[in-house]
Amino acid sequence: MSRLIDQYIRNDAEQSNVMKVEALARRFATRAAKHDREGSFPFDNFEDLRNAGYLKMTVPREFGGDERSLYEMVMLQERLAYGDGSTALAVGWHLGQVLHLRSSDKWPKNIFAALCHDIVNDGAMINTFGSELGSGSPSRGGKPATTAIRTDGGWLITGRKTFSTLSPILDRFVISAYIPEENCVNDFLVRKSYRTTLIETWDTIGMRATGSHDVVLDDAFVASDARLDGQGIDDGGGWLLHIPACYIGIAIAARDYAVQFAQSYRPNHLSGTIAELPTVQQTIGLMEAELRTARCLLYSAADRWDRELDNRPNQRPELGLAKYVATNNALKVVDLAMRIVGGTSLSRNSPLERYYRDVRAGLHNPPMDNTVLHTLAAVALSEQH
Q1: Where does the record place the Acyl-CoA dehydrogenase/oxidase N-terminal domain (predicted)?
Q2: SS3 content of the chain, % helix, strand, coil (to 5)
Q3: Residue 156: in which H helix or E strand, if any?
Q4: Is the separation of the CB atoms in 74 and 95 below 8 Å?
């Protein structure tokens, strides 16, 4: 019988890709505790990802990429997070952004082509920095305090961005900035320079190795053609499923650890292992129910997004629900796993305590729970006339 994590593999090609990523995940798992304890960025993991061609997963084939589907990205990201959640979440922002740009056509063709070329040939990566201390998450509609002022040949960008995942390794990134003279907000493609400074502020209880520090821009120059004001096509935000995929991967790792513990732990007052106890079996059953429910919804949403191109904007409620269920169920699964293992699960020598801290971060990744529920309520209310 196949493992739980293998159940959504559809063909030999996907099996082959999964096995390659599983090898990476095993390697990253040996480094995860060190990076977590130090709060250090896993440059070694990203060198391995680059050498394995993982960074070009969602780049279109016309530019030399693999052009993986959303379903495949979810599958591989889940597998990578099984080994190291921080690395998976961090690289997921890059992979998801590229998939989003591919499906929405929101960037000028020449700029997107140049980015894809650099990803394929040099292992470049991209992320968008929109969050700020004063305005919070851009997904909630806050206007950035970061400004873009017109100058000869382009723009001068000044401001400070928080939660800038991947910032230690990026040579370019997208910045959202307010343009006072036009009273609007736009995105700008910024190159790392002496006018961009990394402030190492990321010191959190979970996802400690994502490098989500602050980035300060002080009159950073951006050429006129690097203003990214295209709207593109509404793709429903399917690319954000890289987030729930990550947290489900962590939860499966916690489930496997707890099950293996239950099958091997034999207290001296029992004749067998604790896996034979009805209470432990019921707890394992609860973990299975939470995981299987979340994964069914996650993979169904990804598959629909891949197939129903014209219906993608209408899938936003389902996509949000997939994230809501996955992250909340992942929290429950890790908690249940710790109940099975008992007090030793709190030890720094146990990966469970890291899983427990890491899955908490899912509540603060977009879309947030209340946003998802509001969207679902709005859809339901719109049906009643």
Answers
A1: 24-98
A2: 60, 15, 30
A3: strand 154-164
A4: no
Shortest CA distance to 255 belongs to which of 291, 300, 281, 305?
A: 291
For 370, residues 6+ apart whose C-beta sits below 8 A from its C-beta are none
pLDDT at 146 over 80: yes
CATH number at residue 319: 1.20.140.10
Query: Residues near 37 by Cβ (< 8 Å), separated by ≥ 6?
Result: 348
Rounded to whole angstroms, what are the CA distances from 233 to 101, 104, 105, 230, 321? 10, 4, 6, 9, 22
Q: Would the pTM count as exceeding 0.90?
A: yes
Q: Which domain holds residue 295?
A: 238-382
With residue 174 as reference, give the H or E element that holds it: strand 172-179
C-alpha to C-alpha distance for 15 and 265, rounded to whole angstroms:
32
Q: What is the dihedral of CA 201, 327, 357, 355, to 10 degrees?
A: -120
What would the pLDDT profile of 271-310 be if each residue is shown by its tens digit? Answer: 999 999 999 999 999 999 999 999 999 999 999 999 999 9
For residue 188, which of 102, 69, 108 has the smallest C-alpha distance?
Answer: 108
- State what percent of residues in the chain have pLDDT above 70: 98
How high is the pLDDT of residue 1? Answer: 47
Q: Any idea what the CATH number is for the domain that residue 81 is in?
A: 1.10.540.10
Residue 48 structure tokens: 């391995």
Report the alpha-carbon distance of residue 252 to residue 240 in Å, rounded. Answer: 20
To the nearest whole percent, how much of the chain has pLDDT over 90?
96
Residue 355 in domain: yes
Kindly state whether residue 134 falls inside one of the protein's structural domains: yes
Parallel/antiparallel/unpaired status of strands 196-199 and 213-223: antiparallel
In the prediction, which pLDDT does 385 show? 66
Return the number of other C-beta atoms located less than 10 Å from residue 190's C-beta: 23
In angstroms, the first-to-last Cα distance of the chain is 50
List pLDDT tens digits, range 118-141. 999 999 999 999 999 987 666 666
What's the rounded mean pLDDT across residues 370-377?
A: 97
